[in-house]
Design brief:
With 136 residues, the chain is mostly beta strands. Helices cover 9% and strands 32% of the residues. It is built from one helix and nine strands; from the N terminus they run H-E-E-E-E-E-E-E-E-E. It starts with 6 loop residues before the first helix and ends with a strand.
Length: 136
């Protein structure tokens, strides 16, 4: 028989990730996220009107389920004013807990949209969502 983590504990785990505030960032290095990654694995883009997005605990809705989830209440949009500094590309995003600079998650954009090369007026939109589900 498989072990099961109850949904209530998944919700507690999600809340522990998001309670201290998060920073949503875009990365420009050609990186595929992996289990051993840290914040240092990702090169945050610079320039082109980009700034990281601060996400606050009160704007997440945490729901128990299979999987349990924490979803931000609004999509985060970057509208670029020009090109970004070298390498000049965006490959995905990553989420960092601001209290201790801990990497929470990273996602590479779909293959068909890579590499994304920002220019004036181009946009990236992300609806932050973190899920938790037991796997034994």
């Amino acid at each position: 028989m498989s072990a099961v983590v109850p949904d209530t504990l998944e919700v507690k785990v999600l809340n522990s990730f998001i309670v201290n505030g998060l920073s949503l960032r875009l990365f420009g290095n050609n990186k595929t996220p992996a289990h051993g990654d840290s914040v240092a694995s990702y090169t945050e883009i610079v320039g082109g009107g980009y700034t990281a997005k601060a996400l606050t605990f009160g704007n997440f809705t945490v729901t128990s389920g299979d999987p349990s989830s924490a979803i931000y209440n609004t999509a985060q949009v970057w509208e670029f004013t020009g090109v970004v500094n070298a390498p000049g590309t965006v490959y995905g995003y990553y989420l960092v807990r601001t209290s201790d600079n801990q990497l929470i998650l990273a996602e590479r954009f779909p293959v068909g949209s890579l590499p994304f090369v920002p220019k004036a007026g181009s946009k990236i939109t992300i609806l932050p969502k973190v899920t938790a589900q037991s796997e034994f």
